[in-house]
Amino acid sequence: METQQAKAPLIWALAASLGSGLLLAFSLSTYSIVLTAFFAFIPLLWLSRRQSFWPFVGFSILSNLLAYGLLAPQAIETVSLPMGLFSWAFVSLLFSIPWAMLWLIHHRHNAKLGYWAFVSSYLALEWMQGQFSGHWAGWQLGSLPLLFGNSWQALTLVGTGGASLWILSLNIQWFRFLFPAQAKSRKGAIWAGIPLVLLPFILSLLMGAVQKGDSGSFVYQSSYKSQKGRLLLGQAPKEEIPENALYAQEKPLNDWAYLAGQDSLGSLRFWQKGERQPLSSQAFSVRTILGVEQRFFQFIDWQGSRLLLLNAHSLKRTAPIREGLQKGAQTVIAFSPDSSLSPILYRSARARAQESGSDIILVQKKKAHHFSANGDYQALEDGQTCSPKIWSPTFFAQYGDLPGRLSIFLAAWLALASIVKPFRKK
Q1: What does the alpha-carbon distance between residue 151 and residue 238 come to, in Å, rounded to a whole number?
Q2: 82, 199, 352, 383: which sits with the fewest CB atoms below 10 Å from its CB?
């Protein structure tokens, strides 16, 4: 049984707090130092044994302030300074809850149950991030393994929530190996850690996207030229559009705004043979933990396939594509006013494609990007073509993020356990 150890000096406590924040920020930032994610939580796990409750919670908040402060310029660049500061402080306080749960369950019950409390509450918060709009949506740990390459097919089963569970669990096993409270803790960490490392790669060998058909051929052009194909984005055409061209004319490019609960693209116009094509707008109600919400999606039927049209911000959330696929969509086209592809949007788009089993074409000002459900990625310059496929629905697309949803119930039960009578005597 693991017990609290000698209190850490202030300088070591500050180093652990700031070190954990830096490692987490590096793993989620533009630098995308993936390996730091597998060690980012170890310093605070070490500190949880060596501080009383309120000082430890304070150090966890300090760690979050540093991590999200370094990430803030990418997340809240479009909002005012007061709103940005509030958002930064709020997410830092919110993600101190898992650390508070860890300490309370650990010291009132036992260490193993404390780890369950930490992981489940962290996953629950990430799940809520992925379901609802917000500046911090898309920062899930589970999108990081995608940077390893195209072999990461386990997402079709577990989604980004399962990948986050894997990273958090490896942090705990590394911590138990490096700082064992007892001799048997290190041995247990080895026996648990080795299968844990191999599990997602074994799953990826046994599963993957299953192709059902083709969704046509798309040609990206930032401006109109006399070339057959589907034109995804450009300026107003000055000559007749080819017969098989799907043309998206966009007007107030700098005024694109993502509306919470409504994935509409009112500024886009689609044309074929010089005539504007109607969009199929569909509204339906979904039940969430906050009650019943009304969702709006826009589709366009094109040469045997149904395209789901989204604002690029929707790619940071897990719900829109999954719900759109359940309504008959087969390929996703997302539009972004940006000129370059940010790391967070790259990870989000790649995660959504693999976990949902749907090819995604992301169109920007000067380039387009094709994310395939089998993990492939293709950058499209002017005149280049991509051929998205139609894939069988994945387990995640059909049933959603089960690790994330189950973690909510487990976290709620453990939160209750943190305030009731301990199972063991002090």
Answers
A1: 44
A2: 82
